[in-house]
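Obj.: predict assembly geometry.
Materials: sequence records (below).
Method: joint structure prediction, all chains together.
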Amino acid sequence: MKHAFVLAAACAAVIGCAGSSGAPPSTSDAKTFLGTVNDTMKRLGIEQGRAGWVQQTFITADTEAIAAHANQEFIDATARFAKESTKFDKVAVPADERRQLNLLKLSLTMVTPANPKESDELTKIMARLESAYGKGKWCPEPSKPDACKTIDDVTKIMAASRNEKELRAAWEGWHTISPPMKQDYARFVELSNKGAKELGFADTGAMWRAKYDMPPDDFTKELDRLWDQVRPLYLKLHAYTRLKLREKYGDLVPANGPIPAHLLGNIWAQDWSNIYPFAAPPHADPGYSLTDILKKRNMPPLDMVRTGERFYSSLGFAALPNTFWERSLFVRPRDRDVVCHASAWDVDLEEDLRIKMCIEQTAEDFTTIHHELGHNYYQRAFRGQPVLFRDSANDGFHEAVGDTIALSVTPDYLVKIGLLDKAPDASRDIGLLMTKALEKIAFLPFGLVIDQWRWKVFAGEVPPAAYNKAWWDLRLKYQGVAPPSARGEEFFDPGAKYHVPDNTPYTRYFLAAILQFQFHRALSKTAGCTLPLNRCSIYESKPAGERLNAMLSMGLSRPWPEALEALTGAKQMDATAILDYFAPLSKWLDAQLAGKQVGW
Ligand SMILES: [Zn+2]
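Observations (raw structure tokens):
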């Protein structure tokens, strides 16, 4: 579960907010203040967690109202405390208290301006943008509203259709939802920048980049460095996929140019797994399907979760509390509406861990269980920290942990736990690696594009009159994809991706994609695995569990490079672990691409 933060700035300059009445604040005042903040945020966080849980597992008008109220209380308190914290900016306080005061100011994704009229306008714009996306539908026949298609329908078409005309229609159709958002988005940029400036940041993008324990410009350079490490592998995957799509779609796919964005199996071309049948290497079928095994054994969802728990227990983590089994939601209830999107919760911020999933007997859900439990074990590991430190080391870490464990769900692991009789031999690895590459390598440039675009927009480098051009310039530069038809400024294509109208920072997903392989490599080494990295599983390794726990238990208490070091021994993010993991596939791609052009 994640909290959304909004802050209303109350004064023109951060330092100017210092208390104007009586004696200047003292070191002990700061300590008292942080005590109050931690107590209050814990209390309100628990109320928010309970209300949110009930709302998402029993959706009614009443539970929605109760949850909205609890959210507002939490946000208002955060806003109040963040403003108040600025009065300690010049007070000498111990380092960990200074860190808590800073984090309070940085926990925000949007700052409303001090002017009440503008603040109100911005809040309304945000609500409008969110619902414009939520209600967004493609209506192929306006006279038949019942035939309108939601994002779920569009997702299915993009995944399953092999008909270019149908794919193009669905792609263009979904992108009709966003032009009406453009004006609101431009105004949102103006107003949220004003709020960020009032807090002392250059703009909203600079405020987001300030959350990474380094100067914002250094963080940008870090991202460039990481992307340069993995770009050659992406280029190879891109070239090979282009070759295979050309065999299917002919000249619609240029031999040496960008891939049309509607042919990659996903409306945003961010995950290419759905076109695996085109890219499948010959003779690399792993010879088993975990989904089939789960179905054949009719494995109950609860047993699937127990299997996930056993993985973490094998690393030395304590068993999940009884309340986890009593209070979690594992299957879709028959009698009421619930939010089935998988999530992990820590309702009392101590021990009341839960997952909320509508588990099906599929390999995907089996992996997702391991992923969600990763959040739960993280939450429990950092519970000894002050409330302001009860979060992951940076926003990429939380998602990376569960995915790290999921990388250990190898064929050999499935044999060990009795789900598979015999692991396929190494010659079949190329198929498994290709499946993973179409998901994880294909995603990397997309994980960068969204915020590269938004940072330029927030900084004023890209004015509203060039929104769409800048968007497609970046998608071409990073992803090597092109729109299926001309996209002028009458469109607003970034708005067709949830995280833009919803204003959720996106770089975290890029970081998580990099970090999970770095974690996997370090833990595999600790576990003594000498196999190729893609065959390593840390199952049953207590030393790996100790290393993992050393990082998890730090929470947000130290700058993330120190948390990274606790697990990996290095302070720098390093994408070469991805290259190690995919080394056999990379070599195989080289052979397929001999004499062919790579890039666009
Ligand atoms: Zn997650």
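Conclusions so far: The pocket of zinc ion is lined by residues 371, 375, 399, 402 (CB under 6 Å).
To do: check interface contacts against the pulldown list.
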